[in-house]
Amino acid sequence: MRLGVLFSGGKDSLYACWKAMQHEEVACLITVVSKNPESYMFHTPNIHLAGLQAAAAGLPLVEVETAGEQETELLDLKRALSLARERFDIEGVVTGAILSVYQAARVQRICRELDLWCFNPLWHIDQEAYMEELIDAGFRVIVVGVFSSPFDASWLGREIDRRTLDDLRKVARKYRTTLTGEGGEFETFVIDAPFFSRRIAIEEASAVYQNYNGILRIERAGLVEK
Amino acid sequence: MILVIDLCYRGNSLSHAEFVGPVERYLREAGAEPIVRHYTTVSAPDIEGADGAVLCGTALKDTGFLDHPDIFRWLSTFARPVLGISSGMLALAAAFGGGTVPCCEIGMVDIRVVAPDPLFAGMTGFPAYELHEHAVETPTGFIPLVVSDRCIQAIRHRSLPLYGLSFHPEVRNEWIIERFVPMVKRTH
Fold it and tell me: Residue A158 is part of which domain span?
């Protein structure tokens, strides 16, 4: 089955893509670029680098812009999925949804309207096992956004390796949050994945941070040999 | 041992992690020992050795399991606890001659308990996660236990612990799986 992967550049969508590749054919990545930083569905700090990640994966990217208002952005998502079907003949869509019923139900409805299959390979996943496999499989993931205490400026740019995962476990236990940042506590950006032919090298980045709220914007990045 | 049946479009499919994995994990966390089989590979020893069975859901477009009603006929004589989830409810109802009606529900829906039953004891209503195109018509020998404004949400056999749920208990209502497990244990 030819599939398009809804793609934000973060760990969940890239892991979902990897899982989809193990079972079906991934024909393209699909990105909805929101102009609204408060977007309910599509906010992510370094979405402008989706094209670079798609090039690293050797996959075409379907990119659609949205003003990012609560329900109209769903029309833009529908437009993006229609475009992906038109260009790449996809029969289904893959998402990285883990627990969000809000996001999952909306994507399910749009897929139904377009007569597309919908796959959520991370749905209610064992988050401990997921994070372990992410590291073991060779994903290299950095934190590029922090949005709640105790995630301070020191987290921006940190790679999610074993030591960071241990720290995330401590935070999850103490603050009763999810290990994966599912509640929007932090955002990630993937610089390498098992299916990337080249990895991403960050050349210049700038952090904006205040009171447990900040982003690391990657200003310049390129592809290098692995 | 609880036999967990994967109704997805093929064994070890991309849908497995979404519809089977979470159910299997919650059963294990509730103290059960699940074994998973794809519906096309369930053997007679699998059925004989099972103390109970759970039939999992599928993607909205995944209805291939309905093309093989004979495969599920064993449910009509199984007589041990069964939990049919969404597509699994359709398979259970079909084994008892129940039909389906179009009723698409996606997302959280408020549902109401309309008949007393140990599985829903103490509950009058709760929000449930729905992902289905069809609802069942209550088969002969079954009673409706839970409803939404639009369709039947749960059925049970009149004398056997055979349950069908239109919604997905593994999403936001794991307590139903936790209550189902001791029902299976009690039949030893």
Answer: 137-225
